[in-house]
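Q: Protein A?
A:
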Amino acid sequence: MSIMRKIIITAVAVCLTTALSACRENNNRLLERELLFSMQIGKMEDHLYVQQFDGVNTLSKTRIFMQDGFFYIANGESAKVMEFSSFGDLISLYYNEDKNPDPVILNFEKKSDTTVTRAAYKYPLKDPGEVARTSDGELLIDDRIAEMRWEWDAESKVLLDRIVLRFDDEGRLMSYLGQEGPGGTPFPYIQSLHVNSSDEVIVVTRNSDGWRIFWYTEKGDPIYKIDFNKDLLPSAGESGSPSIESIYPDYENRIVYVKVDFYDKDASGNIKFNKSMIFGYDIDNEKYSVNIEIPRNIVKSDQPVIFKDKEHEYLYEFAGVARGPAFFLMSPYKGSIYRLAVLDADGRVKGRGLIDFSEEDIFFRNYYVNPDGILSAVVCGEYDAEVVWWRSDIFIEEQKNDYSKFLPNERN
């Protein structure tokens, strides 16, 4: 073999090794955790109030929603919803005056500064949960109604006690959404609340038989009601019993994405995991338009056993959908670090990375993937709560907004 040929082969081998190493490094790249602001644990208007009993959080929700760099945090325990800038400035507050002290930072009339208006709004919230916002500033809050108005759905065997409150951008209650639209029958448990690019409202609920999706126009008129149970799911070949893990709507089309885990029985009758799928159901055409299998998440143990490395498989959790669509999936990796995988509608991996939630001594966390693909979270510890994000929008081909202006170190 000539010296020149040896040089070429060696160079190619080095390039391949470098490329494979870069690929592995990219797959395991730790995305930067950017701290935006912190909140104290307490009862003041810009505090987060949470309680634990015997190490278990109460049933009230704490939820985070982000739109255009503004954060909305629903604090069910304190019956309030707070709006913050990305710098931690309290912009607006919707609160139950029987459960909260009168605000000091905010007034009851809007005050304008150079960019935003700030005000506090009294409303007898009982147990706020999911939050969303339309493009023209309408705020949607999932809340529980008074007990005297609860209803029992005998057919579905579920309690109907939730509604979606609708506030305009001046803090005035416009109406509330029920199953039939404005003023309708209460919903069962609301799993999630969404507004798409056309300002259509999607309410995802749970009942004893499965999942029920309510879809409304921007005015609140009902368009669709879909029951998702095992009978509506498509066949997945040889897979066994299906279990719906989560459902998210598309941001731009009338499609809902259903993440399903399939389980089989082995020869001994034990239940074992088979595979996970995402099915996209086209509501207008009443057919499935997306059918992809989720890659396995195999993690090698740091403590090898004899002759081979011990491996663990963790299921991915469906975290949300960004434009594209791009499906965001998260799963445990090592300690407080989670693996993030982003897939496109054909099942191709758009990107992988690692997310560190810094879970030591925290009570809970809640996260949200916005349409631009940014993963935000509120992480609550014993003495304070942090609002953080990861720029996971690097996995989206076309970034719609410049979010660098919302970082605290860019304030000046």
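Q: Protein B?
A:
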Amino acid sequence: MIGKALKYMRKNQNLKQDNLAKSLNISQQNLSRYENEQRIVSFDTIEKIANVCGYEIYFINKKTKEKFTIKELNRKDI
């Protein structure tokens, strides 16, 4: 499922795999494996792909509707 999201973000920005991979300092083959869910992708890499493609990852509490990002979480004392 995450592979489809990664591919969507990349294609929505009209980026080719090799261009995105170069900007992330990973191989085009690894990016392809992430998108096709043939390799497990780290959250760090997911976040980097999202940032390069102009997206931000949000965490939303279903009950309270509280929403935060990793950047906000890094600023809090936890």
